[in-house]
Write a structure and sequence with these properties.
heterodimer; A: alpha/beta; nine-stranded mixed beta sheet; 33% helix; disordered N terminus; B: mainly alpha; two-stranded antiparallel ribbon; 28 helices
Chain lengths: 415, 536
């Protein structure tokens, strides 16, 4: 509460001194006192993470038969660091995901296994495209599903920071006609003209404020409001709390900045971050090795974000996704090739019903596999998206967000 | 006073009898605004002196000239492009000299790292292969797309064949392929140079046919691996060894089939991607009246249109053994069984001749040249011209550029510049000298339009709403600042901006704001970053 009061005071003063206060800033500050905004943090694991080693079906004999050199060993009291972390007697987390275990125990972490796309493509390019547009099989979709969400829930209190990708470019998920921002470093956002910055910024601002061109007038106004808003909210002053320790990777840095934006109350509703390096065709490793290193970064980042946000996790859902899973059997290079079904995480401190692995498990025996080689998909990834949009972001009618999708399953992850 | 003069000139221009005969609405005595309008639409904006130059040639004559680029000498440009080594190489040369070495170096480094017991096993692949050899090889491979991006910037900035550059940009975007998808990058140079560029003012059918056979498109939209699902069974009879020799190890795109599943071996099958996009995006348009059955039949017709040794940069090849020999029906037209490669050609004939295609192409061109929502009467005339001339692109463009709608008041500054148009027009307006175009290509990327890296087959949007957003707008202002203060490597901007930059036509606020600038560079930045300069 303290931080928001400081923001209102400082923000309001700073803006008054400039002669005006954008309506949305006062509204944000007011709204913040009543009901806090729901936030969705979407994390894309680009390159197709091996879901079978991320969330290990250690109860499956077939799993060990198919992966003689890269399987993660069954949970073991003797060597816990080298074995799966038991979740429910059948599934276990990869040992490097130990930082997520407290979230599972607190019922904040839900897992959907054997989830994925109904489309059969094993192309990273196509599958990412299909997942981000949420229209599997349709290549001509112009906008991303998160952008369509922004449209579906337009509201007067929207700020320029409503949707932000901490990335160099706007990901496909957020592309579209609703405003969304991409930035690598929130400190870099604004006019950069050295010592003349203030003068130049004021000059540009007056040009756009006077423009008869309605589109540029409005957008220009929003841009300068955003710059001022970010300056007065000063997200950089929010240092990680509660002992949160973000990994020193671009991904960890992105999550740290997302926490700063959330705490600065600039109106963030949809945040996007991504982590790469999952395309483990060769020497994937098991409890240690290549994939283990990537999962270590991935898990520590999420754990740090959840810890840092503290009770704000009650308004936050973290949703993870990857374009497809990897083949059940390891290949000749102790790695895994492109597959089909995968695992997704839904993490939140509010109404997420965590501590459970959702989705029907199809089994790994050869005749149970997709194409005889991959984990079959029993839950369409759009069902998971849909449930997050309905249950967390409170959109009752999701037809425009997931066009043509009629088979949504009610999983009960959020309720 | 200035406003009054301008109003007067506009009235005069409108009253002047058109210069190009009865069908041309090109004003005979155009004012600066009108000339700037033409330079902004039939090119990438005015360079210092351009408005006077065009006035000297005559507006009608200038437009006529631009429609025949081969008649415009452009030797100065050739000198600027000479340093870009990869532009004239064949796809085979690019594969062999640039892409394969990078791949080999990476594989070797990885093999070595995996054998090295001192290497931490959790090191990821990227780190393992960060050897000097690999990095040098990868740098060399990146050079291909860098050269291509550089030439695009240099041509748009300095070529006197401005309309040709607009058309290459337009048609590349219409037949978009994405450099980031697999082998597409090997073929990009050839695709723009040999497939698109020579045909931008030709017959649409010819351009369509060239893209259909281009390895870039065959790879990007997966047709190279599309096969008659029955073909594999036929080939199995021929024998396993022959199939293995000929087999493609690429992943299958076909839905799971019981036979394949039991075998655990990927099956090749029909791939509908090209068939669908060919109709939706290249010819008929999404409302062009085709059905899913048409998509399947078109895809069947193109089975066997594949690439010869793609990793080595090979060319188009028709592979009869992948082809579905049976009859197809496309948009009600029957294509008889046994046509082989000609099935695809027949499909292209049918699509190119469809009135829906004429309308779709006319609409897109009118949107590019006139406004986001082009006047229906103009689209009608352009579509009719397309139909009457058997898809002669030059004539359709001529119809649009000489139309009253093109010169109408509401078309003036009706278009928001794309990031590419913005960057290039700023370079032109500032009379900048460019020794190195790569930083400019990076600027275009930062503004959200990475060259040759548009992922979806739709290409980049040609409507304002796609490009006007808060972050992008701030980035444009920052680019203007960076450009004029010479903080951009390899680019030296002149400080005296062309009065041509905005043809003297700015709001009183912009004029007053610019007047308060403390030096010439600030003046230039406040002009190039102004709302007026974001439009063309």
């Amino acid at each position: 509460m303290l931080s928001r009061r400081v923001f209102m005071k400082n923000g309001g003063l700073a803006l008054l001194s400039l002669g005006f206060a954008p309506a949305f800033i006062t509204r944000t500050a007011e709204a913040a006192g009543a009901a806090r905004r729901k936030v969705l943090v979407a994390i894309f694991q680009r390159g197709a993470v091996d879901g079978l080693n991320m969330v290990v079906p250690f109860g499956e004999r077939e799993y060990y038969a198919a992966r003689p050199s890269i399987a993660v060993p069954r949970p073991s009291g003797a060597r816990p660091d080298d074995a799966a972390i038991d979740l429910d007697g059948f599934f276990g987390l990869h040992p490097r995901l130990a930082p997520l275990k407290p979230l599972w125990d607190a019922r904040q972490l839900a897992i959907v296994h054997a989830s994925g796309s109904p489309d059969s493509t094993r192309s990273h390019f196509d599958a990412q495209d299909y997942m981000e547009t949420a229209t599997p099989g349709v290549k001509s979709t112009q906008d991303g599903w998160l952008n369509r969400y922004l449209h579906a829930r337009e509201h007067a209190d929207a700020t320029p920071f409503r949707a932000v990708a901490l990335a160099g470019q706007l990901p496909r998920s957020l592309q579209g006609t609703a405003p969304a921002l991409a930035m690598n470093q929130i400190g870099q956002f604004g006019i950069r003209a050295g010592q003349a910055t203030e003068m130049v910024q004021a000059s540009f601002e007056s040009e756009y404020a006077a423009a008869a061109d309605r589109v540029l007038n409005r957008t220009g106004g929003q841009a300068f409001d955003a710059v001022k808003m970010l300056k007065s909210a000063d997200p950089a002053k929010y240092q990680p709390e509660n002992g949160a320790d973000y990994p020193r990777s671009a991904y960890g840095e992105a999550l740290r900045q997302i926490a700063q934006l959330i705490k600065a109350d600039v109106g963030l509703e949809v945040a996007f971050a991504e982590a790469g390096g999952w395309d483990t065709h060769v020497n994937q490793g098991s409890a240690v090795g290549q994939l283990a290193g990537r999962l270590d970064d991935f898990g520590r980042g999420i754990a740090a974000l959840a810890r840092d946000l503290g009770d704000r996790m009650g308004d936050t859902v973290i949703l993870t996704m990857s374009e497809f899973g990897r083949a059940v059997a390891e290949n000749g290079n102790r790695g895994t090739d492109h597959g089909h079904g995968n695992a997704m995480f839904v993490i939140g401190g509010g109404n997420v019903r965590g501590g459970k692995v959702y989705g029907r498990w199809p089994g790994l025996a050869r005749e149970q596999r997709y194409d005889g080689r991959d984990l079959a998909v029993t839950t369409d990834f759009r069902s998971v998206f849909d449930e997050v949009v309905r249950g967390h972001l409170d959109v009752a009618d999701t037809r425009t967000i997931f066009p043509g999708f009629t088979g949504a399953q009610r999983l009960g992850i959020i309720g | 006073m200035r406003l009054l003069t301008r109003a007067l000139v506009t009235v005069l221009a409108a009253a002047t009898v058109a210069a190009g005969g009865p069908s041309s609405a090109v004003p005979r005595n155009p004012d600066d605004r009108t000339i700037a309008h033409v330079l902004n639409r039939a090119g990438f904006g005015a360079r210092p002196g351009d408005i006077e130059r065009v006035r000297g040639i005559g507006l009608q004559a200038y437009i006529d000239q631009q429609l025949y680029p081969e008649r415009i000498p452009d030797s100065a440009l050739a000198a600027r492009l000479a340093a870009l080594d990869t532009l004239n190489k064949s796809s085979r040369e690019l594969a062999g000299e640039y892409f394969e070495p990078a791949q080999r170096a990476r594989q070797q480094a990885k093999l070595q790292a995996d054998k090295d017991p001192s290497m931490n096993p959790s090191t990821d692949d990227a780190a393992k292969t960060r050897t000097p050899e690999v990095m040098a090889a990868q740098r060399k491979a990146r050079q291909v797309i860098e050269n291509l991006s550089d030439q695009k910037i240099l041509r748009a900035s300095f070529s006197d064949r401005q309309l040709e550059e607009v058309m290459v940009d337009f048609w590349f975007n219409h037949f978009n392929v994405f450099a980031g998808k697999g082998m597409t990058q090997v073929y990009l140079t050839e695709y723009e140079r040999d497939t698109i560029r020579p045909r931008v003012f030709g017959k649409f059918r010819d351009l369509l046919g060239a893209t259909a056979k281009s390895p870039a498109m065959l790879f990007y939209l997966d047709n190279w691996q599309s096969a008659d699902p029955a073909a594999q069974d036929r080939m199995m009879d021929v024998g396993r060894r022959r199939r293995a020799r000929f087999g493609f190890m690429a992943p299958p795109q076909n839905p799971q089939r019981p036979g394949g599943a039991a075998q655990g071996r990927p099956k090749r099958g029909l791939n509908e991607n090209y068939g669908r996009e060919l109709m939706e995006l290249h010819t008929l348009g999404v409302d062009g009246g085709y059905t899913q059955d048409d998509v399947i039949n078109v895809a069947r017709a193109f089975t066997g249109w594949t690439i010869d040794v793609p990793r080595q940069g090979g060319g188009f090849r028709f592979e009869p053994r992948l082809h579905d020999p049976n009859e197809k029906v496309v948009l009600g037209h029957r294509i008889k069984a046994g046509g082989g490669q000609s099935d695809g050609e027949k499909v292209l004939d049918i699509l190119a001749a469809s009135p829906a295609t004429a309308r779709f192409i006319a609409t897109k061109l009118a949107r590019r040249f006139v406004s986001d929502t082009p006047p229906p009467a103009l689209v009608d005339r352009a579509a009719k011209r397309f139909h009457d001339t058997d898809g002669d692109i030059r004539e359709v463009v001529r119809t649009i550029l000489t139309s009253p709608e093109f010169f109408a008041a509401d078309a003036y500054r009706a278009k928001v510049k794309t990031p590419f148009e913005f960057v290039v027009s700023a370079v032109r307006a500032s009379g900048a000298e460019v020794d190195e175009a790569t930083p400019l290509a990076q600027a275009v990327r930062q503004l959200g339009m990475p060259l040759y890296m548009c992922q979806p087959p739709t290409g980049y949007a040609d409507r304002a709403d796609a490009w006007v957003n808060t972050g992008a707008l701030l980035n444009r202002m920052n680019f203007a600042l960076q450009l004029v203060s010479n903080r951009m490597r390899g680019v030296r901007a002149g400080t005296s901006l062309a009065g041509d930059a905005l043809a003297g036509d700015v709001s009183s606020t912009t004029a007053a704001t610019i007047a308060k600038a403390t030096d010439a560079r600030q003046t230039a930045a406040l002009t190039l970053g102004s709302p007026e300069f974001q439009r063309r």
